[in-house]
Specification:
By secondary structure, the protein is of the alpha/beta class. The protein has one domain (2-200): Spore Coat Polysaccharide Biosynthesis Protein SpsA, Chain A, CATH 3.90.550. Helix content is 33%, strand content 20%. The radius of gyration is 16 Å and the shape is globular.
Length: 206
């Protein structure tokens, strides 16, 4: 079994007052666009979000063809960054491996996701993390061994280490280079929409 975690608990500070997770992107909530692109590669979906987001996200996910569960953030008063959401979501997964995708990546490419799963599974590692040519690691679109990464995130947070790569220091993982990504899909899979201008630009492409 393979799982997917969509991380949606961020405060969307650059997006304005609205929750970008459920903002209508060409008529469909953005989180649903992300989730729809994962249907062919996973068996279940876990949504990490805050309790105050759940009702709106559940509405956006109505009639989704895979089982959906919600892993709610327990501490919404502190900004622990995406690491906390990743750990919380992975802890709720049934699959040995799970792809984590941020809710603001509506162009996620199923071919890239499939390749990340294959790299992690075939090499029997705890994570397969893309690295672009600019040196940026795409930790919010990567495949992790669910239990190992969840535990590593918890340990990193407990020791006060908020660096996004900190959990991986405890794990066996592989770097997936941009050249490999391009062989299996579109590098645009990592595009994320943080601002209204980026959102409006993306609308024209759907």
């Amino acid at each position: 079994m393979r799982s997917a975690v969509v991380v949606a608990g961020g405060r969307s500070t650059r997006f304005g007052d609205a929750d970008k997770a459920v903002a209508e992107l060409a008529g469909t909530p953005m989180i649903r666009r992300v989730a729809d692109r994962l249907v062919s590669t996973v068996d279940e979906l876990v949504v990490n979000c805050r309790a105050d987001q759940r009702a709106a996200i559940e509405s956006a996910m109505a009639d989704y063809p895979l089982p959906v569960r919600y892993a709610l953030d327990t501490d919404t008063d502190t900004d622990e960054g995406p690491m906390a959401g990743i750990g919380t979501g992975l802890d709720a997964c049934d699959g040995e491996y799970a792809v984590v995708v941020a809710c603001d990546m509506p162009f996620v490419d199923s071919g890239v996701v499939e390749y990340l799963f294959e790299r992690a599974e075939e090499e029997n590692v705890d994570a397969a993390v893309p690295k672009l040519d600019d040196g940026w690691y795409q930790t919010t679109q990567a495949v992790y061994r669910s239990d190992a990464m969840a535990a590593a995130c918890e340990a990193a947070l407990e020791r006060g280490d908020r660096k996004i790569l900190a959990p991986l220091e405890e794990l066996a993982w592989v770097v997936v280079e941009e050249s490999e990504i391009r062989e299996h899909g579109d590098v645009g899979t990592f595009e994320n929409l943080n601002t209204r201008d980026e959102f409006e630009d993306a609308q024209t492409r759907f």
